[in-house]
Amino acid sequence: MDTDVAVVGLGSVGAMVSWHLARRGVRVVGLEQFGLGHDHGAFTGESRLFRTGYHESPAYVPMLLAAREQWLDLEQRSSRTLFHPTGVLSIGLPGTPQMRNVLESLEQNDLPHEVLDAPALRERYPQHGCLTEEVGVLDRLGGVLRPESAVTETLRQAGDAGAVLLDREEVVEIEPTERGVRLRTTRTTVSARHAVVASGVWSGRLVPRLGTALTIKPLVLTWFAPAAPRDFAPERFPGFIRDLDGVHLFGVPSLDGALVKSGWADNWGSVDAPEQLGRFLSPQELEAVGSDVHRLLPDLPPQPSRHSVHMDVFTPDRRGVVGRVGPGVTVATGFSGHGFKLAPVFGEIAADLATGQRPRYDVEMFDPRRFDA
């Protein structure tokens, strides 16, 4: 099979690469080792926060605004609800680096937001407990994305635009040729002018030069059943991120009218290979996260109703890796737990690089060469 661009991995970023390329009229073949819309990717887990008040750095804001437009465009072209505009509330002590970044992200870009002191927080959002000197910053452009629906819809629209999407095709080798690259899967061979590797935690196997810079970490998600679900409805309880006493908690309002998603961030160590990921926590581990959730959200019980374990690949500086790594090969991986919200833009950047175009964003901070010895 011959094509212009082959995309390895059809999770959130790979789906977006395929979507962008197909809409431009580029011949693209997407290769997925699992089924289309599988549950092995970092994006899975029913909901993901989207925020423009960014804890990591204000440098991401132009990309975040573009990603938001693209998510809404994708939703308009579909019959699915992909984005819930709940707002996102960041809670923390004033002057901490993450809270400074949130405020700078919003103020420097003149984005709609509101700053709440502790008394105002307690009055408006009584669901949050243990509020002392903390402040809250409400990012009004923030919200909640539905990742499984979003990836499925992206693949559908990519296919409608002409992308060939193949499942159960595990790529085991990428080798250079005179006209580009040849990809060998467990079942077929694809020749392309360029390949984009967007295979998440499996990327290091196809791009060995990144191996030592990529660490696989479990992502644990927990859901709790409140006594009064209406108090956690999207119109009353925005998505949130909170830092207090070494605890980094995040949460999503009740989208189903029954459960509230909340829990720790990437606080679960690492694994050496995807196959080593355990899919369930011990009772002691569940008790630990439940205790923190209950302490900071006292109307949620101390025991989660359910949980699930996922995984993502992290870099030492927690910035993604997007760029060329050899003749005819671009990589898009290592998004360190905050790639899904930016998937449309990372997909656009990788599509640009694969077709020899200059991205409209400064991509230097994602350059793979920063990890070269």
Automatic annotation (TrEMBL):
Assigned EC number: 1.5.3.2
| Record InterPro entries | FAD-dep_OxRdtase, FAD/NAD-bd_sf, MTOX
Q: Residue limits of the FAD dependent oxidoreductase domain? A: 4-353
Recall the GO molecular function terms of this protein's record.
N-methyl-L-amino-acid oxidase activity
Q: Could you say which cofactors this protein requires?
A: FAD
For the keyword Coiled coil, the answer is: no
Q: Which UniProt keywords apply?
A: FAD, Flavoprotein, Oxidoreductase
| Main enzyme class | oxidoreductase
| UniProt-recorded name of the protein | N-methyl-L-tryptophan oxidase
